[in-house]
Structure formats: structure tokens, C-alpha cells
Specification:
This protein has 231 residues and is α/β, with parallel strands linked by helices. The protein contains seven helices and nine strands; from the N terminus they run βαβαβαβαβαβαβββα.
């Protein structure tokens, strides 16, 4: 039984998808909610929506607030995983791809708690990874950007064949990580095969200044899928 570290972004959600397809059981999702938008360890754009996404997947959620201070964040993660042990977990699932900073710290906490650490996306080819997510019917939008040449127009865009191709081109021309593993961009999964309902966004606002921005989701709800979508 695994606890999945979860932000609502493409990688943490896709890690859950891979784990379930491999036969693992997910006892709960674990989300650390940092007050500091510059958190070194945790995703922040629209992190408040994890409750709705947990409901969409029908998987229990353990939430832990954090000031988001470097290294002290690990204590907040440790406390969240201690709570998650109530679900009978023996391991922790992450969506880390290549961040040694993130992976090493999570592994340290797992070791201290006697938990295994699973990183099914580790060292994947970034371009192949995002293309695989698209092929598996993940509906993903960009909710944060923080690197040149990303601009305001990216906020709210969908991850699809066109944007995947653009990300590949930006990787070659500007050296960005195509999967956003360097913090170049953040995402939100609004629908995928794991969801029993999909997230419908009624209103949002693009906030962009000094070369970085977020899509602030103002109003949203879970709505039933059509029969075709639910297949």
C-alpha cells in the first residue's frame, strides 16, 4: 500500500496512474500546502484544489500545511507521512523525474520513517514523458511559468501535440527541461483516466509580472463525465 505525494500536477498524477496500472494500491494522497510561493520542495500554483482532485479520484487525502521554509519543509512532510501511516502504507510514491534535490530529501524522510520510496518516472526522457501523458488521455493545463521565453500566453494553455512540440523546440533553443522539472512551468490535471469526474473551470485570471506568472483559478467544480469520457 502506497501513499502518493500529490500536487495535482501532471507528474504526481501520472505517477499514480503508472503505479495503479502496475498493480499497486494507493492508500491515500499526501499534499503539503506551503504558504511560501517560492517553496523549494513543493508545488504551489492552485495547490488548494487537491481536495477536489482527491474527490475526483475517490482516494483519501492527507493535507499538511507548511511555512515553506527551506529544509524545515521536510519536517512538515514527515508529519504528513506519519498521518498517512494510519492508512496502512508501507511506501511512498513520487513524481520526481530528475530533481536530485527533491528525490534525495524525500528518500531521507522515507528512510527515517521506515518507508520504501518509489520513483516510477525517474530519469525518463522528458520529451517522451510528456508525449506519453498526452497519449494516455491526460488533460493538462499550464498554471505557472517562471522562465524565459515563457510568457503570459502560456497560462491556461493545454498540454497537447502542439505544445509538446513547442516544448521540445524550447528545450533545444533555450535549454529548458521539456517536462518542467527545473521549475520552468507548473501544470494542473483537469481530467484523466483516474478521475471519476472532471474538473471544470468557470473562471480564472492570468497574473504575470517580472517574467513569471500563474493562472489563478477563481471558480471551478467537479462535473460528471460523458459516457465516452468515462471509458
Amino acid at each position: 500500500m502506497l501513499a502518493a505525494l500529490f500536487s495535482g500536477g501532471k507528474d504526481s498524477t501520472y505517477a499514480v496512474y503508472i503505479a495503479i496500472r502496475a498493480g499497486h494500491k494507493i492508500g491515500c494522497l499526501v499534499s503539503v500546502i506551503p504558504e511560501n510561493k517560492e517553496s523549494y520542495l513543493f508545488h504551489t500554483p492552485n495547490i488548494s484544489l487537491v481536495g477536489k482532485l482527491s474527490e475526483a479520484m475517490e482516494i483519501p487525502l492527507v493535507k499538511m500545511s507548511s511555512y515553506g521554509e527551506r529544509d524545515k519543509e521536510l519536517n512538515d512532510l514527515k508529519n504528513a507521512l506519519k498521518e498517512a501511516k494510519a492508512f496502512g502504507i508501507t511506501g511512498v510514491l513520487t513524481g520526481a523525474i530528475s530533481s536530485v534535490y527533491q528525490a534525495s530529501r524525500i528518500q531521507r524522510v522515507c528512510f527515517e520513517l521506515g518507508l520504501e520510496c518509489f520513483n516510477p518516472l525517474w530519469l525518463r526522457n522528458e520529451q517522451e514523458h510528456i508525449e506519453e501523458i498526452i497519449r494516455n488521455d491526460f488533460h493538462v493545463i499550464f498554471t505557472g511559468v517562471s522562465a524565459h521565453p515563457f510568457d503570459k500566453s502560456w497560462l491556461g494553455r493545454s498540454l497537447n501535440a502542439l505544445t509538446a512540440r513547442e516544448l521540445g523546440e524550447l528545450s533545444r533553443s533555450h535549454g529548458i527541461n521539456a517536462a518542467g522539472e527545473g521549475g520552468e512551468y507548473e501544470t494542473l490535471v483537469v481530467d484523466c483516466p483516474l478521475y471519476k469526474k472532471r474538473l471544470f473551470i468557470h473562471s480564472s485570471e492570468r497574473v504575470f509580472k517580472e517574467g513569471a506568472g500563474v493562472l489563478e483559478i477563481k471558480e471551478c467544480e467537479l462535473i460528471p463525465k460523458s459516457r465516452e469520457e468515462a471509458k
